[in-house]
Amino acid sequence: xxxxxxxxxxxxxxxxxxxxxxxxxxxxxFLENQRDNLPQVPACEKCNNxxxxxxxxxxxxxxxxxxxxxxxxxxxxxxxxxxxxxxxxHRVMRDGLIHLxxxxxxxxxxxxxxxxxxxxxxxxxxxxxxxxHWGTIIEKTSVVSAMxxxxxxxxxxxERFFALNAKARVENxxxxxxxxxxxxxxxxxDQITVWLFEAYAGLRMTDRNDIEDYSNVxxxxxxxxxxxxxxxxxxxxxxxxxxTA
Length: 245
What we know:
The protein has six helices and twelve strands. By secondary structure, the chain is α+β, with helices and mostly antiparallel strands. The strands form three sheets. A five-stranded antiparallel sheet has the order 3-4-12-9-10, with helices on one face. A hairpin with a 2-residue loop joins strand 9 (205-207) and strand 10 (210-215). The model is unreliable at 235-245 (pLDDT under 50).
């Protein structure tokens, strides 16, 4: 491993010393021919392990909702062996599957998913990208708030945040739309950043009690002071529990 990532401040906790270089987007989300040049950042052992737990879970679940060109190949090539090694998760997904029908015709289905795992992973990813693109470590005192956005929430982000002047902007797509993201950094403080993420070209997340009101974008805000309640109430759909298959 390159010395570039060892002995630095961990970008995830902004405290411990890094021992490894972590891929901001886990390689396991991508087919093998799409894994070159993925962003890497310095990470401590504790943060790397915590993030890995989320990634092991989500790389087994999210591909079922993939909408990108290689969705079927990704699902067949990588997911079965992961579920074979995690029989408990396989059982939970099998038992929690909801079949959707319209006048007797199948409209696909919904699989159970831990919404908190999604938002927690994107909070890690946001911290990693802030360092990778702008050299900014999101401080321990800053708040990172991630949420699954309704269409109204996405519009709010675009109108209220992305339309404003910014110190820095970034837009990127990895793989064949495995992940797409755009981010802005405020002019007055590096700690204020705003991000929009899309996984697998529009993977849909929804609530068990309101499956028509789905989200396919995750929004993240970082700020030195807490905006969590204000942001959550404005954008809604925080912590979705299901994803379409």
